[in-house]
Design brief:
The complex is a heterodimer of chains A (621) and B (192).
Chain A (H helix, E strand, L loop, with lengths): L4 E6 H11 L4 E4 L8 H12 L4 E4 L3 H12 L5 E6 H6 L1 H10 L5 E6 L13 H8 L3 E2 L4 H18 L3 E3 L3 H4 L1 E7 L15 H4 L3 H23 L5 E3 L7 E7 L1 H13 L7 E4 L7 H10 E7 L5 H5 L6 E2 L14 H14 L11 H9 L14 H12 L4 E3 L22 H14 L7 E6 H17 L5 E6 L28 H7 L4 E5 L4 H16 L6 E6 L7 H4 L6 E3 L8 H6 L4 E4 L4 E4 L19 E3 L1
Parallel strand pairs in A: 2-3, 2-4, 4-5, 5-7, 6-7, 10-11, 10-12, 12-13, 14-15, 15-16, 16-18, 17-18
Antiparallel strand pairs in A: 1-8, 9-11, 19-22, 20-21
Chain B lengths: L3 E8 L4 H14 L4 E4 L10 E8 L12 E6 L2 H6 L4 E10 L10 H7 L3 E5 L1 H7 L6 H10 L8 H11 L2 H26 L1
Parallel strand pairs in B: 1-4, 4-5, 5-6
Antiparallel strand pairs in B: 1-3, 2-3
Helix pairs in contact in B: 1-6, 4-5, 5-6, 5-7, 6-7
The chains are: A alpha/beta (621), B alpha/beta (192).
């Protein structure tokens, strides 16, 4: 008997469900918003359904894709999950895997972040799919994402090609009620059939493989033309329309809801669930019934580029759709309304939000920039760094600690691992002019494991000099406290082999390594001073300080073993030094009191600020 | 049935996601289709946090400006920041201990749009009960006392009971009850 239950799942949970329902045997990932919750949701389901799925947090996205690819060519169904910029890291693997092909289904889930809410770029994964020549599916909501995972697996296996699923943030972090039953175990066993001409193909064979890939795409394109469950329109036969809308992904669901709400049956919609290979005949059929078509897609212009009849197309290229930022409902609503008016069609029944927007602007509400949490050990490390090296250039990296920008201790942030490589680049650029420029690089523990060592050994090998502070809070904090290799805990909670940061750093050829607790600002400062000496010594080189203290969110008890309730005395002269240089959200200037005060609602009693006040006005109560 | 749009706002760490989860689960148990959108990642580090909840047969997760029926804000300024979401005749519940709520200009706007606004010092209530991080439950309790919308006091209470981690269940229910009583008292006084 089949029992089903209904639960409110996060989009990423729905994707996890889809993966296991499709018989996925191997799932790998590196955390990154908005993809981070997929793997933990897989872990939960695997435990509750007693499946034997292999799950891992890989050290980076390329590793994740390679691992999943290997599983696929042993005949198993496999997937890897990452954020859109993670796919850049895995691009080398992706491009080649497209040529080699798959055996068991291989699905790459790359989550886009229009906005961007938590990313370096607004890049569109669909273009990466086009570049690699692999199919891409673009879900509009969690339920569809779950179903599309199964379709992606089937296509991958049928055509022996990796398939990308591109959920955007409003799919990943949407919540929807979803019904599901028990999940069947997949008993596929690993078998690798040697075939060096494919799996180790040299350029001569690559040409042949490229030809095969092109043939596969043609066949898949034909399939997508008639895949009416995901690619469909609501034209009435024989009827002509002044305007039609072509949409995919999240914007499709937004538009669908508007048109139902406004009861607008006069505007037909073509939904594209599989933007590449593009269902061209279907689009042609739709366009021939419409005088004009408006293309609304996230984040870039893939569908728009693929429509041949340029004269009829309105979209980003014609200036009708914003070229950056998220297409939130009010933006979509306004842009459609503008087009309706431009074409002399009946506009939506709009309730204009202009007055409210203006009011909010006039209120001059305080901007709430994200800050490091109260008690964050990284704040303490940053304070010591700035105190010791006020004139340094501060190269930093991707993680919570990018928020060190608020403390004036982050000058650059390019991509994962770039704290180290940019520091080396700065060193050589200044050294070339005989300028001794102090440089302090900061990188988190997880980011270091992801992309640090290669840059570090390059910097050592090529004689760069700078201080590198590894902010080791024993977790991947920004993305939701995933374990790092240093912990020896694996994705499913089982024991793994712990990897020592110190040994990696030493292995990269670094001779100066000190481990400090950043909560002790005095000791951290003295360690930094030693590092400065070493960097400037003719026989010196790169100095690495590991500032190790548990994350206050992941390990509240270990992070603050002895609570120190602080209070501010009348010695406070309102110099605001603590607010500017330490920037703890629990400290604020109390105008009524005429001094700095403590917000007890958020203070975690770490007591670090006692060491910060130049007047000694912050004391233990 | 008409779609119900709810916006929940506040600052990272105030428990907006939990408040959303309670309402969503309670709605599901009453047979609603549920769609919601959450803030994760960078935006959670003390910054503005907003959560959308839509009950009804919809496929998109974000509430459009001018269409929210309810705004529940755990912080006053974050409540103001999200005013554009409110529809005409909407209802707004804000955690604040300020006597000057709603601040100038806002009141005129709310009155003009016939928006009903109510405030409760949820933060103080939670702190007095020894649970400074439970202002979300005090606000939920207060909201439930007015019986507006499809999710009622009993539904919310039952859901808190079901989904609270064992460790926090008792205190969560206690803070919720105190918030509810405040709302009931307000109701009684206003009809005297």
């Amino acid at each position: 008997m089949k029992t089903t239950k209904q639960e409110i799942l996060l989009g990423n949970g729905a994707i996890a469900l889809g993966l296991l329902e499709s018989g996925c045997k191997v799932v790998t990932s590196y955390p990154g918003t908005p993809s981070s919750e997929i793997l933990p949701e897989v872990v939960q389901l695997v435990k509750s359904e007693k499946l034997d799925t292999y799950i891992e947090w890989s050290t980076n996205e390329k590793v994740a894709l390679d691992t999943a690819f290997a599983a696929s060519i042993t005949g198993k169904r496999a997937a890897c999950c990452m954020k859109q910029v993670g796919l850049n890291v895995a691009a080398d693997s992706l491009m080649s895997a497209a040529y080699l092909g798959t055996v068991g289904g291989l699905v790459i889930i790359s989550c886009d972040d229009p906005g961007p809410h938590s990313s370096q770029t607004e890049q569109d994964t669909r273009f990466m799919a086009r570049l690699a020549k692999v199919p891409v599916l673009d879900p509009s909501n969690p339920q569809e994402a779950r179903e599309m995972v199964g379709l992606a697996m089937d296509i991958s296996e049928e055509f022996r090609i990796p398939v990308i699923l591109r959920p955007a943030i409003r799919v990943c972090h949407a919540r929807q009620n979803i019904s599901f039953g028990s999940i069947k175990k997949n008993d596929q066993k690993a078998y690798f059939e040697k075939n060096p001409q494919r799996w180790a193909a040299t350029p001569r064979f690559r040409l042949i493989l490229h030809g095969e890939l092109n043939k596969k795409l043609k066949e898949i394109g034909k399939k997508f033309e008639i895949l009416s469950y995901y690619n469909f329109h609501n034209l009435e036969s024989g009827k002509k329309y002044p305007l039609g809308i072509i949409a995919g992904g999240v914007p499709y669901s937004v538009i669908r809801d508007f048109l139902l709400e406004e009861k607008r049956t006069d505007i037909p919609v073509l939904k594209i669930g599989t933007p590449y290979p593009f269902p061209e005949s279907l689009a042609k059929e739709f366009m021939s019934a419409c005088k004009m078509v408006l293309v609304i897609e996230e984040t870039d212009t893939l569908i728009e580029y693929l429509l041949r009849d340029r004269e009829k197309v309105m979209g980003r290229l014609s200036g009708h759709v914003p070229t950056e930022g998220e297409l939130v409902p009010q933006v979509v609503h306004k842009l459609i309304n503008k087009v309706l008016k431009e074409l002399n069609l009946e506009p939506f029944q709009t309730d204009d939000d202009h007055e409210a927007m203006q009011l909010v602007k006039d209120l001059q509400l305080p901007a709430r920039r994200p800050t490091l949490c109260p008690g964050c050990p990284e704040r303490a490390a940053f304070f010591a760094i700035r105190k010791t090296r006020p004139k340094a250039i501060f190269t930093s990296d991707i993680g919570c600690y990018t928020l060190g920008i608020n403390l004036g201790v982050v000058d650059t942030c390019l991509d994962m691992g770039a704290a180290i490589t940019i520091a080396a680049g700065f060193y050589h650029s200044f050294a070339q002019d005989a300028v001794e420029q102090p440089i302090v690089a900061t990188i988190g523990d997880s980011t270091f494991f992801h992309a640090g060592p290669v840059g570090l050994l390059n910097a050592v090998y090529n004689g760069a000099r700078f201080i590198l502070v590894i902010l080791d809070n024993l977790t991947t904090a920004m993305t939701g406290m995933q374990p790092t290799p240093a912990l020896g805990i694996r994705a499913d909670g089982s024991k793994g082999r712990a990897i020592s940061l110190e040994r990696i750093v030493a292995g990269c050829g670094v001779d100066f390594i000190e481990v400090v607790d950043p909560y002790d600002i005095k000791k951290t400062t003295s360690s930094l001073k030693k590092a400065v000496k070493y960097v400037n010594d003719p026989k010196g080189g790169i100095a690495v300080i590991i500032a190790r203290h548990p994350c206050v969110i992941a390990y509240p008890d270990e992070a603050i073993p002895q609570k120190k309730r602080v209070t501010i005395t009348e010695d406070c002269v309102e110099c605001n030094f603590c607010l500017d240089r330490f920037e703890c959200p629990a400290l604020y200037h109390d105008q009524e009191l005429g001094r700095v005060n403590i917000n007890r609602e958020i203070c975690v009693d770490c007591g670090v600020c006692i060491q910060v006040c130049p007047k000694g006005a912050i004391v233990e109560a | 049935m008409e779609t119900i749009n709810i916006v929940l706002s506040g600052l990272g760490g105030q428990g907006i996601l939990f408040m959303t989860r309670v309402l969503a689960q309670a709605a599901l148990d009453k047979g609603f289709n549920v769609m919601g959108a959450e803030t994760h990642g960078m935006a959670q580090r003390g910054g503005s946090v907003i959560s959308h909840l839509r009950l009804g047969k919809v496929e998109s997760s974000l509430v459009r400006t001018g269409t929210a029926h309810f705004l529940l804000s755990l912080e006053e300024n974050e409540g103001y920041r999200n005013l554009p979401f409110l529809s005409k005749g909407a209802k707004m519940y804000v955690n604040t201990s300020s006597r000057y709520f709603p601040r100038e200009y806002v009141k005129e706007f709310l009155d003009k749009r016939e928006i009903i606004y109510r405030s409760i010092p949820a933060g103080t209530i939670a702190q007095d009960l020894g649970a400074p991080r439970s202002s979300n439950l005090a606000l939920l309790g207060y909201f439930s006392a007015f019986g507006e919308g499809p999710i009622k006091y009993k539904d919310i209470k039952m859901t808190i009971d079901t989904i609270s981690p064992q460790k926090f269940k008792d205190i969560n229910l206690k803070v919720f009850e105190v918030g509810y009583k405040k709302g009931k008292d307000f109701n009684n006084n206003s009809f005297d």
